[in-house]
Amino acid sequence: MTQPNARDAGTITIGGDLTVHRLGFGAMRITGPRILGEPKDPEGARRVLRRAVELGVDFIDTDDSYGPEVSERLITQALHPYPEGLVIATKDGLTRTRYGAWPSDARPEHLREACEGSLRRLRLQRIDLYQLHAPDPGVQFEDSVGALAELQRDGKIRHVGLSNVSVEQLRSAQAIVDIASVQNRFHVAHRAAEDVLRACEADGLAFLPWRPLDGGSLTGSGSPLVRAAATRGATAGQIALAWLLARSPVMLPIPGTSSVAHLEENVAAVALELSDEEFDAIAEAAAA
After folding, report:
1. Pair 116, 90: CB distance under 8 Å
2. Spatial distance between the Cα atoms of 282 and 286, rounded to a whole number of angstroms
3. 193-215, pLDDT tens digit by residue?
4. How far is 140 from 154, CA to CA, in rounded Å?
5. How far apart are the C-alpha atoms of 109 and 122, rounded to whole Å?
């Protein structure tokens, strides 16, 4: 039986010139417990990254705060020199404390310093997609976006993305610089960002739903996805990812894992095609 491949999800073009398969990999969970420190099995983490590329994944999303810095270093160790066509997206705007908190820091000077650090760790001359992780309530949003625009003009980043933003913030950012993508929380049972998704569809921006499996809560025994999965011989997680892929052509899910077996299960979701009736029934049941 042929192993499903991320190529089967089709493609999306980011920023007009980066075409990737429409199932990526989120590299948050390859770090240590609570996204802090080194993983218990560093070689296992690198194996997951290499296997993702073998399975056709050509979009990897990370952040300098994952570890912190651990995720970016593992990506470099596992995949550099990078295969042709591999897009590594990273971001900044949140930092970490030793206790696991995520304080905001989207000051322009911090964003510039963080971008330089990511370039060094990832061994890149330019980052293909650099995202503002979240608006900082202590900093003018336009100042943070302006810093990314400057980094783009300086040739440090290719495209600018946003994360955890409203439609109003997206429009404000677009008045400063071309925006290539938005990464907001979104899954079948959490659709508060529908208006942002519609804005991305209207403008042809990639929409990256973070926590597409909601940390595993969508796959629990009480999940309506379990019933749908049983009728298809699939897992609830695969149904959740198939639903996202069916929801919009600009959707680029980035499920993460520290397990090769779970990675392969996630990629296999691209082989599932939901009927309109299945799609609507899953959406209705998940929203109940």
Report:
1. no
2. 6
3. 999 999 999 999 999 999 888 76
4. 22
5. 20
Mean pLDDT of 155-178: 98
Which residue has 């590329």 as its token pair? 53
Burial status of residue 74 (CB atoms within 10 A of its CB: 0-12, 13-18, 19 or more): buried
Q: Is 66 a catalytic residue?
A: yes
Residue 272: alpha-carbon gap to chain centroid: 21
Axis crossing angle, helix 236-247 with helix 260-267, rounded to the nearest 10:
40
Whole-number Å distance between alpha carbons of 91 and 27: 12
CATH numeric code, 7-215+249-256: 3.20.20.100
Q: Quick check: helix, strand or coil at residue 10? A: coil
Active-site option among 66, 82, 99, 130: 66
Radius of gyration of the chain (CA): 18
User: Burial letters for 139-167: b for 16+ Cβ neighbours within 10 Å, e otherwise?
Assistant: bebeebbbbbbbbbeeebbbbbbbbbbee
Q: SS3 of 141, please? A: helix
Distances (CA, A) of 134 to 108, 173, 182: 13, 12, 11
Please state, in angstroms and rounded to a whole number, the distance separating the CA atoms of residues 211 and 110: 26
Domains of the chain: which residue ranges? Answer: 7-215+249-256
Q: Which amino acid is at 100?
A: G
Whole-angstrom distance, CA of residue 206 vs CA of residue 17: 12
Cα–Cα dist 131/158, whole Å? 11
- Please tell me the predicted confidence (pLDDT) of residue 182: 98
pLDDT at position 242 is 96
d(CA 4, CA 66): 29
Q: How far apart are alpha carbons 25 and 52 in whole angstroms? A: 7
- Quote the CA–CA distance of 159 and 134 in Å, as a whole number: 17
Instruction: Give the alpha-carbon dihedral of 91, 241, 53, 205, to 10 degrees.
Output: -50
